[in-house]
Amino acid sequence: MSGISEVSKQEVSHLEKTVGDSSDSVKFDESDRKLGVDIDEGFDPAEVKRVVRKVDWRLIPMLILMYAISLIDRTNLSVARTANENRFDKDLGTDGNNNRYSIITVVFFVPYIIFELPSQFGLRAFGARIWLGTAVVLWGAVMLGMGFAQNWYTLAALRAILGMFESALFPGAAFLIQCWYPRKELAFRNVIFYITSSLGSSFAKLIGFGFSHLDGRGGMAGWQWMFILYGILTIFIGLLAYVFLVDVPTKGNFLTEREREIVMTRIERDRADSVPDPLTWPKILAYCCELKSWFIAFAFMSTTMSAYALAYFMPRILTIMGFNNVESMLLGTPAYFYAIIPAVVCGRIADRIPHMRGNMILFNAVCIIVGTAMYSQLPSNQRAARFVGIFIATGGGNSNIPLILAWQAVSIRAQSKRAFCSALTVAFGGIGGILGSTLFFNKEAKQGYPTGVFTIIGLNVATIFGTLAMMAWMHMKNKKAKRGECVIEGAEGFYYQI
C-alpha cells in the first residue's frame, strides 16, 4: 500500500513563515514545525480550551444545519411517497410495477459523484462561505421546483440537478473540519457534526408527514407542499451560511491574532499543514496512486449503503413488519436517537486512544452486519427482535461514517490532499447511495430484500478484512519510520494512528 507522498521535505521547509493577511498574521518558528511535540506546549490550557470552544460554536453548528437540510432534501422522496402514496404515484406515474421511482431515487447520485472533485476547486477559489452558501441556496430553489413537477421524468431531472449542487457540501464540510482541528480532536467533531445532522434529518419524516396534511390546499397535493416548504427552508439556511459560515483558519477573521496563533500552531505541531497548498493535477495523479485512500473510500461506500438503504426504505421495512403507515413514519426516528450513543462513545475512544481507530470501525461494521441480518432475516413473528435489528444497524452505520472520515483525515497531510481525499471518500459514499437505493427491489420486499441485504453484509465483511489489513500495514510503516527506514506522508515524526 505504499503511495506517492504529496509533500516532499523541500515543500515542508518552504512553508511560509507568515500566513494570513497583512493586518492579522501568525508567525511560526522552527520548533512549531517539529512533529511529535506537545501541541499545547507554551499555551495556557484554559486559553486553549476557550479558543477550541470558540471555534466549535462558530464552525460546527452552521455545518450541522446545512448538512441536516442536505440529508432531508435528498431522502425526503420516501417520505413524500409514503405519506401520500396513492396521490404521489398517480400524479407522477410511478404506480404499477415499473422502475420509475427507483430511477428518480438513483439519478441524484450520478452528478453527486461526478461533481465531488470539481467542487473542491470551487471551494478553494471562492471560499467556503460563498461557495457552500450558494450551493445550498441553489439546491433549495431546485427543491422548490420539485413541488411543481407534473410527471416522473421532470422530478427525476430535478433530482439530478439537486445532486449536482449538493455534491459541494459534504466534502467541503469534511475538509473544513479537518483544517481546524488537530488529529486528537477530529473523530469527536466529525461524530457531532454527522450524528446531529442525521438526528435532525430524522425529524424530517415527522415534519414531512405534517406537511403532507396540507393535501388539497391551494389545489396542490401534500407531497407538493412538502417539497415547496422544504425548499423555502433550505434557501433560508443557505442565506444564513453567507453570514455565519467560516473558512479555513488562515481566513478565520472571527478570531483574534492570538487565538489564530493558537489554532494554527497546534495544527503545525500536529501535522505541519496549517498553510494551504494549491490543488494541482500532478498532485491529484500522485494522490490517486495511494491505495489507502481507495480502501477508506471503499469502506465508506460499504457503510453509506446501509445508511442510505435505511433512510430510503425504513418506512417500507417497518410496514412489512406489520406497522401501519403512520407507525412506520413515527418509529423510524428512535433508531437515530440510539445512534448517538455508539457514535459518541466510539468517537471519544478513537480520539483519546489513537490506536483504537481501526477497532472502532471494526466494531461498527459488525453491528451493521448483525443488525441488517436481524431486521431482514428473522421470522416475521419476531417483530420486536427485527425492530431491535434496525437500531443496531442504524447505530453501526451512523457511527462508522464519521469514524471512517476521521481515519482518512488523520492518515494524511497537506490541505490539497485533504480536499482530494474528502471528495474521493464522499464520492464513494454516493456510490453507496446508488447501491442502497437500487438493490432493494420492490419485488423482493416480502422476502426481506435479499439482494440489498446480502450486498450490505458482503461489503461490510470485506470492510472488516480490509481494515485488519490496513491496520497491519500502518503498524509496519510506523515501525519502519521509527527505525528511520521511511518517512510517512513526507514529514519526519508523522506516524499513522491505527
TrEMBL record:
The chain crosses the membrane at residues 59-80, 100-118, 130-150, 156-179, 191-211, 223-245, 293-314, 329-349, 361-378, 384-407, 419-441, 453-473. It is a multi-pass membrane protein. SUPFAM superfamilies: MFS general substrate transporter. It is found in: Membrane. Residues 8-28 have a biased composition (Basic and acidic residues). It comes from the Eukaryota. GO terms for molecular function: transmembrane transporter activity. Residues 1-28 are annotated as: Disordered. It holds the Pfam family MFS_1. The keyword Transmembrane applies. Residues 62-478 form the Major facilitator superfamily (MFS) profile domain. Its main location: membrane. InterPro entries: MFS (IPR011701), MFS_dom (IPR020846), MFS_trans_sf (IPR036259). One of its GO terms (cellular component) is membrane. PROSITE patterns: MFS. Keywords: Membrane, Transmembrane, Transmembrane helix, Transport. Coiled coil: none annotated. This is Major facilitator superfamily (MFS) profile domain-containing protein.
